[in-house]
Write a structure and sequence with these properties.
about 220 residues, alpha/beta, Rossmann fold, 7-stranded mixed sheet, two-stranded antiparallel sheet, 5 helices
Length: about 220
């Protein structure tokens, strides 16, 4: 389905907030945890960031654990880490599906290697382990994947929030009020969500010729959490 192109180098649709001009990828796959995708999505947009949902390519629309749909803006193999300032990985069962796709793992690994913020919520530690970026790092996660994190070389600690360099880990065991989305050095706690998402395409962060995603789809509108 064709979509109007929007060059993200010419501004964002989020306004003039403290994150204006930042491009943030939120990864999506089937059975994502609803609030762990939509809460950061709306909070970051309210702060002025340009937020894109990036899927694995296995589908155009993914259902959450509770049946709420999200339609992706791009697939992981059509974008690069250099196009974003940060990558957020929601939890639920989706990280177990994400890590089956090399392009998703590569995006996370390269974002970390480029010094971008990589935020992992709840079960998203699975993706960090698959990307081999937690070795020697202090991290937290949902308790059931503690062994996976330790086996990947992390120094696992039982805390709600852990930051080690540009890695941001959130345990988030059924406590959405602990979910304030923050980007180190740029964002604080945010308030109510803005309007509905609009159609867009992912442009290049280096200001070069715009690169179109492999598939571009209109996000489901008229609904909000």
């Amino acid at each position: 389905m064709a979509m109007e192109a929007r060059n993200i180098d010419k501004g964002t649709d989020g306004g003039n907030g403290e994150l204006a001009g930042m491009r943030i990828a939120i990864l999506a796959e089937t059975l994502y945890e609803d609030l762990e995708l939509w809460y950061p999505y709306y909070r970051l947009r309210e702060a002025g960031a340009d937020v894109f949902v990036v899927g694995s390519g296995s589908a155009e629309t993914y259902q959450s654990k509770h049946g709420y749909p999200v339609t992706v803006d791009a697939e992981a193999d059509t974008v690069t880490a250099s196009q974003f300032d940060a990558v957020i990985i929601p939890g639920g069962y989706s990280p177990d599906h994400m890590r089956r796709h090399p392009s998703m793992v590569k995006l996370v690994r390269e974002a970390h290697e480029q010094g971008k913020v990589v935020a992992a919520i709840c079960h998203a530690g699975w993706m960090l382990a698959s990307a081999n970026i937690v070795r020697g790092k202090t991290a937290t996660s949902y308790r059931s994947i503690k062994d996976d994190m330790v086996n990947a070389g992390a120094n696992w600690v039982d805390r709600e929030v852990v930051r080690d360099g540009t890695l941001d880990h959130r345990r988030l065991e059924g406590a959405p009020r602990q979910h304030g989305t923050r980007t180190p050095g740029r964002a604080g706690r945010l308030s109510q969500p803005p309007g509905q998402p609009t159609r867009r395409s992912v442009g290049r962060a280096d200001g070069g010729h715009q690169r179109q995603p492999g598939r571009r789809h209109q996000r489901r509108t008229g609904e909000r959490l």
